[in-house]
Design brief:
The protein has one domain: Up-down Bundle (Amino acid/polyamine transporter I), CATH 1.20.1740.10. 64% of the residues lie in helices and 1% in strands. The chain is built from 18 helices and 2 strands. The relative contact order is 0.21. Pfam families: AA_permease_2. It is found in: Membrane.
């Protein structure tokens, strides 16, 4: 039984599957498109909200260092993702990488995890976008009915019509084509980056050196809000992370990590990239470098404009300009934040549909969802299904307390990808690798340890919810996926033994 659970799908077979006409995605993306996708999904709620929260509660002006720490953790994982994405340029990201290195069951687990991560991330950001738009509408004198604004009306009914509408519109754009999605993203990213640059450039003129004193505030112990709310590391080792001080920077890093979520989504578009061997590493590493630089600059400027103890925890960038008497900048920043969140939703939704598509193409989910649209060459069936489900979830469910599940799901994927790089180097040293992760196995091991460290800093309640989702995933796999897998049905045999299948088809 163990041999079937850990059967691997050869890299050559994965690539051959992408050449089947009815299951092949259109190759239309360049390195620039990938970088724009990465920047578009990374810069979002994190930089517009979390800067004030962690500065005020965890790190003070040293929040800039927290962004650096989180960026380093992501960079370690990004180097591993870059090798896999250029070596196995197939839709599915960490799911496909795991299938080639760790086996079917680990691949299923990580695929199931990514479905949760991207779906929940899309819904959370859609609700956040709805809040910005509702605020802008209120300022213009247009007020949504209580029952359609996400708040319970007089009869107890509440539906967030704006959040649901955003997800459905983006679903339609993704069905029409990835290149169209890239064009829309490029326009929105330009607006979003402009807003961030305005904060950096304009805010630099209002920096006061006294606001940086002390740069690293004196350490204070964390007050746990109950056993389940305590970080897992506190319950396991009896050690509580600190607010402020040097350790407060690491505590803050586990929070601001949310601001970096999304660069791994770039890897899900590998199959739709014209030259993945060259462009995937550029897109992944380039977008991460750009965003880390902007994050550090913004945090330095904002904590210099206003004392960290006075920063807003809901809209720190906009409120910092209000505090110094420049409300116009505050309105501009709020508008840019609302516009920018649309690309975050779109690219998270794109990533999820590609993982779902790859899993269905392998038979672990119904093959009905593995067919592409005859005209647009997009996985329209899973895109529509997941878009409708997420729209309903975003409309009805208050998701703020579940947002940390996105963090733990992403970090878990980082761990699996890093381990996969080590294993594939040993089992398939013959594979052509246009990009090689440096210092293997040292760097992937560091990536695993860094990701686990941030995971341990998440509340125990988050771990319990994550475990519940994984248990459900095991049930689905053993009741359906294991017996319907193409590997289980023998459809993948005889391929990848050094002979290319005729016409690129495994059958």
């Amino acid at each position: 039984m163990s041999s079937t659970l850990f059967r691997t799908k050869r890299v050559e077979q994965s690539i051959a599957d992408t050449e089947e006409p009815e299951h092949a995605l259109k190759k239309s993306l360049s390195a620039l498109d990938l970088t724009v996708f990465g920047v578009g999904v990374i810069i979002g709620t994190g930089i517009f909200v979390l800067t004030g929260t962690v500065a005020k509660n965890n790190a003070g002006p040293a929040v800039a260092l927290a962004f650096v720490v989180a960026g380093v953790v992501c960079a370690l994982a990004a180097l591993c993702y870059a090798e896999f994405a250029s070596t196995v340029p197939v839709a599915g990201s960490a799911y496909t990488f795991s299938y080639a290195s760790l086996g079917e069951l680990p691949a299923w687990i990580i695929g199931w995890d990514l479905v949760l991560e991207f779906a929940l991330g899309t819904a959370v950001v859609a609700v956040g976008w709805s809040g910005y738009i509702a605020s802008l509408l209120d300022n213009a004198g247009w007020h949504l009915p209580e029952a359609l604004s996400g708040r319970d009306g007089a009869d107890g009914f509440g539906f967030d019509i704006l959040a649901a509408a955003l997800v459905l519109v983006l679903t339609g754009i993704l069905v029409l084509g990835t290149k169209l999605s890239a064009r829309v993203t490029s326009i929105v990213v330009a607006v979003k980056v402009t807003v961030v640059l305005v904060v950096i450039i304009a805010g630099a003129f209002f920096i006061k050196g006294d606001n940086y004193d002390p740069f690293i505030p004196k350490s204070q112990p964390v007050e746990a809000g109950g056993d389940l709310q305590a970080p897992l590391i506190q319950l396991m080792f009896g050690w509580a992370p600190s607010n402020f001080g040097v350790m407060g920077i690491f505590t803050a890093a586990s929070v601001v990590f949310f601001a970096f979520i999304g660069f791994d989504v770039v890897a899900t578009a590998a199959e739709e990239t014209r030259n993945p061997q060259r462009d995937m590493p550029r897109g992944i590493l380039g977008s991460l470098l750009i965003c880390t630089t902007l994050y550090v600059a913004v945090s330095i400027v904002v904590t210099g404009m206003q004392k960290y103890t006075d920063l807003s925890v809901t809209a720190p960038l906009a409120d910092a300009f209000k505090a110094i008497g420049h409300p116009w900048y505050a309105g501009f920043i709020s508008f840019g934040a609302a516009v920018g969140l649309t690309t975050v939703c779109m690219i998270l939704l794109l990533g999820q549909t590609r993982v779902f598509f790859a899993m269905s193409r392998d038979g672990l989910l119904p093959r009905f969802f593995s067919h592409v649209h005859p005209r647009f060459k997009t996985p329209h069936r899973p895109t529509i299904l997941l878009g409708v489900i997420i729209a309903i979830v975003a409309g009805f469910t208050p998701l703020s307390e579940l947002a940390e599940l996105v963090n733990i799901g992403t970090l878990f994927a980082f761990v699996v990808v890093a381990i996969g790089v080590i294993i594939l180097r040993r089992t398939r040293p013959d594979l052509p690798r246009s990009f090689r992760t440096p210092w293997v196995p040292v760097l992937p091991i560091l990536s695993v340890l860094a990701s686990l460290w941030l995971m341990l800093n998440l509340p125990t309640e988050t771990w319990l919810r994550f475990a519940g989702w994984m248990v459900l995933g095991f049930l689905v796999y053993f009741l359906y996926g294991r017996s319907h897998s193409r590997l289980a049905r023998g459809e993948e045999t005889g391929v990848g033994q050094g002979v290319k299948p005729p016409n690129g088809s495994p059958e």
